[in-house]
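Homework help board

Subject: predicted structure for assignment chain

Our instructor gave us this sequence and asked us to write out the predicted structure in token form, then describe one feature. I got the tokens but I'm not sure how to describe them. Can anyone check?
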Amino acid sequence: MSIMHTATARRTAASPSALRATLDCRPEAASYARQLTSTFLESLRPEPDRSAAEAVMLIVSELVTNAVRHSGGRYCSLRVSADPEAIAIAVGDASRVPPHRRTPDVRGEGGGFGWPMICGMAMATAVTEEPGGGKTVNAIVARRGRATGRATAPAPC
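My token output:
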């Protein structure tokens, strides 16, 4: 029995600094997404600084975990791309419900920590409804140092 029934990852031909993956919405998806993202980040030249790489890894893990837990779909998509200034993360899933702030469950049973964490690390976030259904959650992380300003639309942090 395989951990992932369907998982594809490839570098895009049009952009050598991009990763695309389609993952089964299973608990193992977040681990696989982290593995793919880590390999992608290590291949970038110049490499992003440590804080940027850690932020990207955490955001990917959180967004894929949320897609698995809350979307109700069979698959989710992961895209990670880089330019000289930033790293963009996009996770698509079958749900139209955007992420939102809620009171964190300090007992550790119900979450509520992820979206504020993402908003604190990303210099920009956005949620896009997809024409065929579902949504894509986007986050942009500065490749070097902390972002000084941030833009958010339409899911406010």
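Reply (TA_rk): Your tokens look well-formed. For the description, you could write something like this. The two ends are 40 Å apart (CA to CA). That's the kind of observation they're looking for.
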